[in-house]
Amino acid sequence: MNKNQKIEQQVEKTLHALDDAERAKTDEYFFSRLEKRMQEKNAGEPTSQRISLSIAAVMLLILVNIITLLHYNHASQTSQNSMQTQEIQMNALAEKYFFTEPVIYKQSETIPSNGRR
Fold first, then answer.
1. CA dihedral 37, 43, 47, 49 (to 10 degrees)
2. Rounded Cα–Cα distance for residues 12 and 46 (Å)
3. Cβ pair 94, 100 in contact under 8 A
4. What is the pTM of this model?
5. 73-116 residue pLDDT tens
6. Residues contacting 46, CB < 8 A, separation 6+
7. How far apart are CA 6 and CA 10, in angstroms?
């Protein structure tokens, strides 16, 4: 026999070795115990998917905080500018109509409720 035929014979012998093997027998609760043990082992370890999800959630939270901070700063600057503009407009209106001091009238000095004085 040549070398190639010996190799083929060994391969065939190896492939047919498992044909006569019987299925391993276990008790009826083996699979549930194995599954429970695997779950307990995996419960303590964070998987790479959990870690990446946690990192993404933290990055999203940081991004939302930065956007909120920038929006708040812009809104406060706009609010200050609008208050200053409003004050300037009110002062211009007061100067135009000579309202230099606030005048408070009592209700009795205004028009009486029955139309007579």
1. 120
2. 45
3. yes
4. 0.34
5. 877 777 777 777 878 777 777 777 766 666 666 665 555 555 55
6. 54
7. 6
